[in-house]
C-alpha cells in the first residue's frame, strides 16, 4: 500500500491539525454521497477507503510514538491492515439502519473490540432508546480512549439527561416524565453525534 502521507498529500512533518485538515478535504471530495448514480461511484468508494486507511494509519503511528523515517515506513505500512467495517457502521447508523450496524458489530471478536466499537454500540443503543446500555458503552469507550472528544461528549450528554446518571437510572419521584431540558439535551446529543459521522 502507498505511504499514508502520500495518500493525504502532506509531508511527514505535517502537524496533527494539518493531517486532519487534509483528511477532511479529501473525505468531503470523495464521499459516496457525491457519487450516487455515477459511473465513478466504485472509484470514489475505493478512494474513500484508501483515505480512511491512511488517516487511521497516521493516527495509529502518532499515538504509538513511532518516529520511523519515510524510507522505513513503506515496509511498516505494507503490513498494516485496517478494516473499514467501522466506517460502514457509522454510515448505517446515520441512515438509521440499526440492525445492520449491530450485525456488523456483533461479528467482531471480543478481543478486537476497541473504544470505537463500544462507542458505535452505544450509538446503536441510543438510537433504539436504550439509555442505560448506551451510556454504559459510551463510558467504556471513554475509559479506553479518554482523549477522544467525541466519546467524552457522548458520556457528558448522556449524564446531562434528567433520568440518567452514572451507575444507572436515578430514582425520580416524578416518574420518567421528560422535561424540556431533557428533550433539548437529547436533540443536541443526536445532532453532535450525527455531525461526527459525516466524515470529520
H/E element sequence: HHHHHHHHHEEH
Which radius of gyration do the C-alpha atoms yield? 19 Å
Per DSSP, the total helix count is: 10
Shape: globular
Report the structural category: mainly alpha
Tell me the strand order in the biggest sheet: 1-2
Q: How far apart are the termini?
A: 23 Å
Report the average pLDDT across residues.
74
Low-confidence stretches: 66-83, 162-181
> How big a fraction of the residues is strand?
under 5%
Q: Fraction of residues in helices?
A: 55-70%
For the report, how would you describe the main beta sheet?
Answer: 2 strands, antiparallel
Compute the number of strand runs: 2
Protein architecture, described:
With 200 residues, the protein is mostly helical. It contains ten helices and two strands. A hairpin with a 2-residue loop joins β1 and β2 (168-169). Residues 66-83 and 162-181 have low confidence and may be disordered.
How would you concisely characterize the structure shown here?
By secondary structure, the protein is an all-alpha fold. Helices cover 64% and strands 2% of the residues. It has helices spanning 4-8, 16-30, 41-63, 70-78, 85-94, 98-106, 115-128, 131-144, 149-160, 180-196, and strands at 164-165, 168-169.
Helix/strand layout:
Layout: H1 4-8, H2 16-30, H3 41-63, H4 70-78, H5 85-94, H6 98-106, H7 115-128, H8 131-144, H9 149-160, E1 164-165, E2 168-169, H10 180-196
Helix pairs in contact: 2-3, 5-6, 5-7, 6-7, 7-8, 8-9, 9-10
Summary tags:
single chain, 200 residues, mainly alpha, two-stranded antiparallel sheet, 64% helix, globular
Amino acid at each position: 500500500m502507498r505511504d499514508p502521507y502520500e495518500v493525504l498529500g502532506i509531508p511527514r512533518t505535517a502537524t496533527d491539525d494539518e493531517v486532519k485538515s487534509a483528511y477532511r478535504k479529501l473525505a468531503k471530495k470523495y464521499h459516496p454521497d457525491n457519487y450516487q448514480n455515477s459511473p465513478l461511484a466504485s472509484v470514489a468508494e475505493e478512494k474513500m477507503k484508501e483515505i480512511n486507511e491512511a488517516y487511521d494509519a497516521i493516527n495509529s503511528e502518532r499515538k504509538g510514538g513511532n518516529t520511523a523515517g519515510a524510507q522505513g515506513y513503506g515496509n511498516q505500512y505494507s503490513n498494516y491492515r485496517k478494516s473499514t467495517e467501522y466506517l460502514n457502521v457509522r454510515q448505517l447508523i446515520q441512515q438509521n439502519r440499526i440492525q445492520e450496524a449491530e450485525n456488523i458489530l456483533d461479528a467482531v471478536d471480543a478481543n478486537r473490540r476497541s473504544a470505537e466499537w463500544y462507542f458505535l454500540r452505544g450509538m446503536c443503543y441510543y438510537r433504539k432508546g436504550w439509555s442505560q446500555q448506551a451510556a454504559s458503552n459510551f463510558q467504556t469507550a471513554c475509559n479506553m480512549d479518554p482523549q477522544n472528544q467525541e466519546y467524552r461528549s457522548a458520556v457528558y450528554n448522556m449524564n446531562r439527561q434528567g433520568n440518567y446518571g452514572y451507575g444507572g437510572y436515578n430514582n425520580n419521584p416524578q416518574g420518567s416524565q421528560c422535561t424540556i431540558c431533557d428533550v433539548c439535551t437529547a436533540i443536541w446529543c443526536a445532532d453532535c453525534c450525527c455531525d461526527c459521522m459525516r466524515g470529520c
